[in-house]
Write a structure and sequence with these properties.
Elements: H1 6-24, H2 33-52, H3 62-71, H4 80-90, H5 92-103, H6 107-112, H7 116-127, H8 130-139, H9 142-161, H10 173-183, H11 185-200
Helix pairs in contact: 1-2, 2-3, 2-4, 4-7, 5-7, 9-11, 10-11
């Protein structure tokens, strides 16, 4: 049985990440590409930190040495912001948030949202304080909130016609509520508030 050393495994992971970047840079983004690239960049960063005998990858000589190391890899063509977003996504506390968000998505949505910048924005939005999110919601005009609600309803109807989240005729109210919350809790909360507001206004039942 052939034994693979930790060094060889690390190098194999870096090469796999480089291959994923080469493929992705031509427009062929796959659902797991970001993870392969992120793992490779994290390993390269760890090597540089170890060589410099430091723990903080910010400031000092790290940016220069890290950049020189990347210049010898396929990642030399990656945009710095994309690289930064990838490394952000790979931080343990951020991976917990991201993994939860991705697990709640339908496979079709998960496959579309594979660019590191998209994933970065998802994490940042999820980690924003609840008070800040509520303040942003209040800034939107009633017309904007109604338009957003109508768009969400239209989206749900399209998903239903495509065999989506649930069947309005056969599922119970509890079933629909449970699916909405698992699919997107923030949207479910906004939908509940909008429904309550419509009922208070005496909107006719459909």
């Amino acid at each position: 049985m052939i034994s693979i050393s930790p060094v060889d495994r690390r190098q194999a992971a870096i090469e796999e990440g480089e291959a994923a970047w080469v493929s992705s840079s031509t427009g062929k983004w796959e659902e797991t590409s970001w993870m392969k690239m992120g793992t490779a960049l994290t390993l390269i960063r760890e090597d540089v930190l170890r060589e410099l005998h430091i723990n903080n990858p910010r400031g000092g000589s790290f940016p220069s040495v890290f950049g020189q190391r990347l210049a010898g890899t396929k990642f030399k063509t990656m945009d710095p912001s994309t690289r930064s977003h990838l490394l952000f996504c790979m931080e343990p506390e951020n991976r917990i948030v991201l993994d939860r968000l991705l697990a709640a998505m339908p496979p079709s949505d998960r496959a579309r949202r594979t660019h590191p910048t998209t994933l970065y924005k998802m994490i940042r939005a999820e980690m924003r304080p609840a008070a800040e999110k509520a303040a942003d919601a209040k800034k939107r005009s009633p017309a904007e909130r109604i338009k957003e609600l109508e768009a969400e309803v239209a989206s749900l109807k399209r998903q239903q016609s495509d065999g989506g989240l649930f069947d309005y005729d056969r599922n119970t109210v509890d079933d629909i509520a449970r699916v909405l919350i698992s699919h997107s809790r923030p949207k479910a909360e906004r939908l509940a508030k909008a429904v309550q507001a419509r009922l208070k206004k005496g909107a006719p039942a459909g």
